[in-house]
Amino acid sequence: MKQANIRNFSIIAHIDHGKSTLADRIMEQTHTVSERDKKAQLLDDMAVEQAHGITVKSRTVRNHYEADDGQTYEYNFIDTPGHVDFSYEVSKSLAASDGAILLVDATQGVQAQTVANLRLAKQNHLVIIPVINKVDSDAADVPRTQAQIQKLDPAFENLDMLKISAKTGMGVHEVLEAIRTTIPAPTGDKKAPLKALVFDYMYDAFKGIIAYVRLVDGTLKPDDSLVLMAEQTHISANALGYFAPNMTPVNELNAGDVGYVVTGIKDPQLVRVGDTMTSATKPTSQPLAGYEPAKSMVFAGFYPRDNNYNELKSAIEKLALNDSSFHYSLENSEALGAGFRCGFLGMLHLQIIRERLKDEYGLEVLTTAPNVTYHVYLKGQTEPMIVNNPINFPEFSKIEYVEEPFIKAEITTPNNLLSEVMKLAEKHKSTLLDMDNQADLIVLTYKMPTSEVAYEFFNQLKSVSHGYATLDTTYLDYEIADLVKVEVDINYATVDALSFVVHRQDAPNLTQELVKKLKVAVPRRLYPTPVQAVVEGKAVARVDIPPLRKNAAVSGGKKSISKKQALLRRQGINKRQSAKNSIELPQEVFNAILELDL
Asked: Is 227 helix (H, G, I), strand (E, B) or coil?
């Protein structure tokens, strides 16, 4: 294929605006998929994607389009998610593209994630084609939607926008023509030294790491000796090809192509998303700029149920191999045994991983309360102690001061919901930095503790804004904060996996709420079970879980004093012995903390 006939593009949209349906129609009208293989949301092949109706993992597919000018064009479509938790996947896809289709639902208009994804596309200097979808719906308001899009960018003001129905295929041919006429062809030099962007990868048990690459310059052939420039990792191109949407081998990839390289590497740590792949014999002198690796925003512990640690370890390792934004490390809890400390992009990402463990591997996991990373400065030491697990938070008597991470949060919301959004932000200890207008939307910029955003903030934001607000976060710095560790004692034994870190001012209310939830969640025993929340060595909240049967010693029965004393002694022995034993807790106990407004 001539380089002038190659187009590399993505589709960006708010969640549920029809992006996956448009991708299906494009593959259908370019005859990429046979009639037998057709199905709705073809690229969303994971069970969890189909269950939620969202795209989680970006995909790529090559289409061959017979254009109106009589020529055949190579359309490399790189799929993108729509949910804010997976904006990292969007960034990876846009880095490998030359243009993007901005898809907007005519029944809902421009929404917050539309603006956020457009901002990402403009940062990558992509050509944007605005397209209005679902124009055949009775609820469609095309003039209003077009006016909203025109306010997003001055380049859209006098543009005759495409109006389509991805569901029926109406107007999709015009979109295919617009891709040909509007998005530029790649400009790489086929004769220059190989320079390819590794924008994603997947792991195959037999083939090892399969790198997704966009060739900027040069040519790539099977058995070429290659180097990944970040770590100077030497590899060999065992095989290469493109996705259509299944893996299709070829004998050559040239500048401008998007495809895959089978590296044979078994260690995923040697391949970094955003790295530059070049020739070992004739390397390029300047690597590509790439982009920052994914930063985990939420940390939580995963522990196995039913003592199936080895199965859980194997499943988590496989998930991490195919999800470059999911990180994990080993950890151990006195109450729950061996487990894993996992890092996620957000709470939806955590939920998706849990569901994939259940759907793909049949594993249920106990999940501890999410938290962020703190810098703890101990007395007499200059270097901070890095703590991303409340279990490792040191005793209060040893602490000089604690720093917590702050982020810059950009909240985009319709102007009629401004008051509710600002009240929510103020509730979460945020400081307003800036306020700006963008079309019919307001962009609020806040400085906010990461711990306030890491858990339920985005869900609450969706609730108060009825789904119309979005959240875009960037790391700022660490600042001193008054934080305390809350420990939970059940039957006089500390359950370390239930520990969490909060601001001191929030501790009294949260601990009272917590023990009330635990009174219902913790399994009852044959004697009263006390539950205490302890802060800095003091019990600040307590509740007694009632026994399964009456306490014979205090039930009011007419017994002699000696019999009551004997019963009390036996119960005391039982309590002490029980406190020494491991405490088996169901997920409902951990959900009590997950449901707190931390």
From this structure: strand
Residue 41 is predicted with a pLDDT of 47
Q: Is the dihedral of CA 130, 135, 140, 146 positive or negative?
A: positive
- Does 523 lie in the same domain as 585? yes
pLDDT in tens, 349-400: 787 888 888 888 888 888 877 777 889 999 988 899 988 788 889 998 899 9
**What are the b/e assignments for 9-46, b being 16+ CB within 10 Å?**
bbbbbbbebbbbbbbbbbbbbbebbeeeeeeebbbbeb
568 Cβ contact partners less than 8 Å away, ≥ 6 residues apart: 553
**Which residue reads 């254009």 in tokens?**
67
Q: Within a domain: residue 428?
A: yes
User: In terms of residue numbers, what domain contains 554?
Assistant: 485-594
Shared domain check, 167 and 266? no
Claim to verify: residue 427 and residue 459 sit in the same structural domain: yes
Judge whether 289 lies within some domain: no
Q: Does 69 lie in the same domain as 13?
A: yes
Residue 55 has pLDDT above 50, yes or no: no
Tell me if 187 is assigned to some domain: no
Asked if residue 512 and residue 582 are part of one domain, the reply reads yes
Separation of alpha carbons 126 and 9, rounded Å: 9
Q: Which residues does 53 contact at the CB level (< 8 Å), separation at least 6?
A: 16, 41
Residues 140 and 213 in one domain: no
Amino acid code (one letter) for 48? V
288 in a structural domain: no
Three-state SS string over 412-473 comes to: EEEHHHHHHHHHHHHHCCCEEEEEEEECCEEEEEEEEEHHHHCCCHHHHHHHHCCCCCEEEE
Give the SS3 label for residue 199: strand
Distance in angstroms (rounded) separating the CA atoms of residues 520 and 531: 11
Q: How far, in Å, CA of 412 to CA of 443, rounded?
A: 4
Burial 424-463 (b: 16+ CB within 10 A, else e): bbeebbbeeeeeeebbebbbbbbbbbbbbbbbbbbeebbe
Q: Are residues 178 and 104 in the same domain?
A: yes
pLDDT digits (tens, 9 = 90+) for 389-446: 888 899 988 999 999 989 888 888 888 888 999 999 998 889 999 998 876 678 899 9
CATH of the domain at 437: 3.30.70.240
Which residues are 361's β-sheet partners? none
Residue 534 and residue 467 share a domain: no
Q: Is residue 498 within 8 Å of residue 590, measured between CB atoms?
A: yes
Q: Which residues pair with 220 in a beta bridge?
A: 253
Predicted TM-score (pTM) of this structure? 0.67
